[in-house]
Amino acid sequence: MTEDDVVDKELLTIGAFASRARLSAKALRLYDRLRLLTPAYVDEVSGYRYYRAEQAERARLVALLRQLDMPLARIADVVEAPGSDAAALLAAYWDGAEARFASQRALADYLRGRLSGRSSEMYGKFVVETAEVPERVVLTETRHVLAPELPVWIPGSLGRLEEGAKQAGGVTGPSFVVYYAEVSMESDGPAEACVPVADEGAARAWAEQQGRATGVKVRVEPPRRLAYVRIAKAQVAHPQILAAFEAVEAWIAEQGLSYDGPCREVYFADWDAAGPEDAVCDVAFPVR
User: How far apart are alpha carbons 136 and 97 in whole angstroms?
Assistant: First the structure.
């Protein structure tokens, strides 16, 4: 096929099509490489790309989706889906984006407080208390996990361990999660989910049945003195919970105490039944 034949068939050069679609030729080449918008014809000799006029609608759709910061891989799913399915995919993406924006807005508010020197005001709303916790046998599961994964991993892991506790005399106290290193958007801990149990022997037998691949273990948690603040369900979300941790750290420094182990979250209430303002968790540090 010659270039004249292409023109006769009313195909548009990449320049003409870019003008009609209100996109750059560079963007069209990128869309072609990613198979988001394939030219109607590519000259084998010159490598020139040609498009049909009706492809402009798809090109504009791709460009508009990019303005929503949608990843190109997800754009490919949307433009290939039929109308109602494409709309559902877009709605699901935007719901996730709005949740992310809300979290980022909360983080920005938190950071403004820190940067403006209002840390003492943020910490003042928390009441730090101490408690003596006796030695306990705990079923545990340790995982390297990022902060966005915690809302899924924590209840899933504690749920699995609580099922195991039924085979070991039952749960004898609040479940808790220990953070051995920072868990954030970029740092993955590890974190350890722990459920206190009554029967150490039965717990070890159950853990052995699960196999090493599950990561389930049994250990003895030594007696601890905990400094903690009690927070509501709404405050467990990141970054609100960061202020609670920092409030305890500030109190420890003021009291001249030393850390006696890694920080933890102690869950003592029914999460599903609790409302946003109900107390569900203690943010704690072992101290001496």
Answer: 42
